[in-house]
Amino acid sequence: MTSPAAYRLIRRIQFADTDAAGVAHFSRLLMMVEEAEHEFLRSLQIPILTESSAWPCVALDVNYLCKCEFGDLIAIELHVASIGRTSITYEFHAFQSQASDQSKVFCGKMVKCHILPGKSGATPIPESIRDILRAFLPHVI
Amino acid sequence: MTSPAAYRLIRRIQFADTDAAGVAHFSRLLMMVEEAEHEFLRSLQIPILTESSAWPCVALDVNYLCKCEFGDLIAIELHVASIGRTSITYEFHAFQSQASDQSKVFCGKMVKCHILPGKSGATPIPESIRDILRAFLPHVI
Amino acid sequence: MTSPAAYRLIRRIQFADTDAAGVAHFSRLLMMVEEAEHEFLRSLQIPILTESSAWPCVALDVNYLCKCEFGDLIAIELHVASIGRTSITYEFHAFQSQASDQSKVFCGKMVKCHILPGKSGATPIPESIRDILRAFLPHVI
Amino acid sequence: MTSPAAYRLIRRIQFADTDAAGVAHFSRLLMMVEEAEHEFLRSLQIPILTESSAWPCVALDVNYLCKCEFGDLIAIELHVASIGRTSITYEFHAFQSQASDQSKVFCGKMVKCHILPGKSGATPIPESIRDILRAFLPHVI
Predict the structure, then answer these.
(1) Hey, are the CB atoms on A26 and C57 less than 8 Å from each other?
(2) Which residues of A touch D73 (CB under 8 A)?
(3) Is CATH 3.10.129.10 correct for D7-134?
(4) What's residue B37's pLDDT?
(5) How far is the alpha carbon of A15 from chain B, nearest alpha carbon, in Å?
(6) Residue D19: CB partners within 8 Å, gap ≥ 6?
(7) Is the CB of D28 inside 8 Å of chain B's CB atoms?
(8) Which value does ipTM take for this structure?
């Protein structure tokens, strides 16, 4: 994806993110992707968890390219890849963000669906939210 | 505390419980204490999380005595130390549970209070629950 | 995959696994897949974390099909889908394991690669380990 | 403690920090205290995890005063309460940091001891580190 990121989060790898192999645990890196997603939605005043909206993860596709360690600063770049009737597909790329090292750490896709908390099944994304997010879709030339 | 434990949970230290120093992270060991508490309540059919009961932690006092590592089996012994109007104080002692090593890993006290989920402040523990738990109090001779 | 699972782990959703939407968090369910993988390797006496072996996750592909909640018992069925020179691809399917509900909760693939801890890059899986794992590959008729 | 905090960290409650009761889980709040400690040490260029230094938690004493929820901004104020031969005692106070609500969320003490990673037992805190930290001790008048 060559369009600019919809959101860019810098996040330090904390001690509790690491495991006994000395690196950030793969599951903890995914929490950071969700933190980026939530900061993105928050920056747009899109509700994240209310009586009428929640966004559980329904699909994930991740590649881990190189390790990151305690104390590393990671830049997570989030893109809105597509908007469906009830779900949003995000693409993400995470990089080391030190001057000396900008290597890609992991990347992938995450699909979040829109639900009414406590109800089963997905529910359409409100038009007002779709309108806001549409501006972040990759441009077709 | 010399009376027998109210509940004894054997729990393996999982990879995601460890940190880059190669040992179980102190915060993850506390999750295991709560797992023991919940298995104890579950075994007595005491509600853990319903519309009329939840048990947040209101106080903790823990000493970590020796490290435990990925793959170790830990025995968590839970005692009911006292029952207040709105809270239960548990005492816990965690041991290595291999034949060759029974050393104490950590111990402490945890106070859980009874609330109505979504409401502020503690609410009295129902008499039916107090009746069940009273049997686990240390005996005064 | 119709061959029997290489390993089947029953795991209760703990309170610390849940989130404010009232369900198990997607990242925590992935820790359970790794717990199943590690119990599988442990049952075969294959080293999981030693000076000569560690198994970081290099790729994940997951679909979350229905929610699971605090206290639910989940059965995670792990299959060895393929064995590469330096990596193992597992397939996993997780089900509710109550008598009244056997619905599939999530499923996917996880690629774990073999490394020497502290070194960069993957290292070939020792032949002794390949020999053990080969028995769990799906049979070609 | 009335002296100014040695370090003050503002941290948002993330979705993965919450539990099914709708609030931040007590164990996750302790990870944030350690994040504050590590940012404090980092700001002073004191080694946090190297071949010659690691700082496991050996004791905790925490009181949880009111709940905090997904999205809340929490200010964690860290004080150096005392410096022993092999350990540092921190005191911490965490507050809601919105303009409309500055209530105290939790507070307590955490003792971190100095070890050589991989070795058993505590090891004296190097004099160079003690010199730096001494400036943060509460003043005796």
Answers:
(1) yes
(2) none
(3) yes
(4) 98
(5) 7
(6) C15, C16, C18, C19, C20, D25
(7) yes
(8) 0.94
